[in-house]
Amino acid sequence: MSLYYRPTIAEISLDALGHNIAAFRRHMPTGTLLMASVKANAYGHGAAGIAREALACGVDYLGVAFLDEALQLRRKGIRGPILVLGYVPPEGLEIAREQEITIALFREDILAAIAMLPASAQRLKVHIKLDTGMGRLGLLPEQDWRGFIRRVLATSGVEVEGVFTHFARADERDKSYTRLQHDRFVEAAEYARAQGVPIIHSGNSATGIDTPDWAGGMLRLGISMYGLYPSGEVEGSSLALQPVLRLKTQTVMVKSAPPDWGISYGTRYVTSGREWIGTLPIGYADGYSRMLTGKAEALLRGQRVPILGTICMDQCMIAIPGDVAEPGEEVVLIGRQGDETISAEEIADHLGTINYEVTCMLADRVPRVYVKDGQHVADNRLLG
Ligand SMILES: Cc1ncc(COP(=O)(O)O)c(C=O)c1O
Fold it and tell me: Fewest Cβ atoms nearer than 10 Å: which of 1, 24, 253, 370?
């Protein structure tokens, strides 16, 4: 029995994932820990499959956005250390402690709630979050960083494992703002280190690539673990990253449509002569946005072909070159086929967004199929 019957899949190369992790290991100062950011379903790549493989590749920590994402990984048997980078409400603190999930701490009231937890032999691990200029989570410098760190250290039942911050503009060529944030962080980082806090961290992919010395003791690696660059302004060539994801499908109906034949809703495309049209079982409900209508191309037989007409909820149509066609040919919507590539960046440009959003958009109903050495080794239907 197959676990899915649709030829549309996101093929996830575990070889590429391993290559990218190894590239960062070589690139970072010796001893730097690596956190694999697997939030948002591992940027659309399937959280459990990526988490498991990243840990097997020697990654030291996993990062998620919310406690629910961490618990889901635990339910799927992922045992490695997990840091929740975002907010954990008071009602989540006990289960976080029980499940050995580390939380980001940046509010006095949450510290007070931790102090009120029922006694336990286990301590709740926390990483204190400081806002050095991202303006999102974290305490401002005027909120007395040293005092807060001291109070957390003095709270029983808490283990202060880390102190961290996040850079807002690390992916820009001009590093002056990142330098400013880094300089603000240094003093607090030194204080925390002197108090015995072991992991002081401040870097994302862009930091790792361009200014590895500013990442601190652990690089929080997201987009570039998936083989994509945080922006066109980072100096990534030395890492030679490999994209991990290919979005592919097959033609499920091909027809030689007569002249003047309308294609898809609104008949935005009308054939001019007799034209071969292929129907693909993928649409906007899969995360292949309707806003790509009239813009996107696909790869068929290693060549670019246009998507014709409106992208529907579950399907869209392509032009098929030549005189004859049979259904069942492979079509790639993101990734390489032969010598041609459609990158996540190309799709992002059509949509006026960034590559991160393109892979994050891929819907749950698209099976993630994990491939290693050319072999299908797992899929997220099996991983649960
Ligand atoms: C706090 C934090 N650290 C690290 C990352 C990873 O960033 P990137 O995907 O740019 O490597 C993110 C992602 O947005 C984040 O929010």
Answer: 1
* Closest CA to ligand 1's atom 14: 222
pLDDT tier at 382, thresholds 50, 70, 90: low
Summarize pLDDT for 3-31 with one digit per residue, the tens: 788 899 999 999 999 999 999 999 999 99
* Cα distance between residue 78 and residue 71, in whole Å: 9
Q: Three-state DSSP class for 371?
A: strand
- Can you tell me the distance from the alpha carbon of 318 to that of 150, in angstroms, rounded to the nearest whole number? 62
Q: What is the mean pLDDT of the chain?
A: 96
> CATH for 31-227?
3.20.20.10
Rounded-to-integer distance, Cα 102 and Cα 123, Å: 10
- pLDDT, tens only, 111-165: 999 999 999 999 999 999 999 999 999 999 999 999 999 999 999 999 999 999 9
How far apart, in whole angstroms, are the C-alpha atoms of residue 188 and residue 130? 9
The CATH superfamily label for domain 245-383 reads Lyase, Ornithine Decarboxylase; Chain A, domain 1 (2.40.37.10)
What is the maximum alpha-carbon separation in the chain? 78
Domain spans, the chain: 31-227, 245-383
Integer-rounded Cα radius of gyration of the chain: 24
DSSP H or E segment with residue 222:
none
Pocket test for ligand 1, best of 39, 62, 164, 166 (most atoms within 8 A of CB): 166
Q: Output the pLDDT for position 378.
A: 82
Rounded distance between C-alpha atoms, residue 248 and residue 335, angstroms: 8
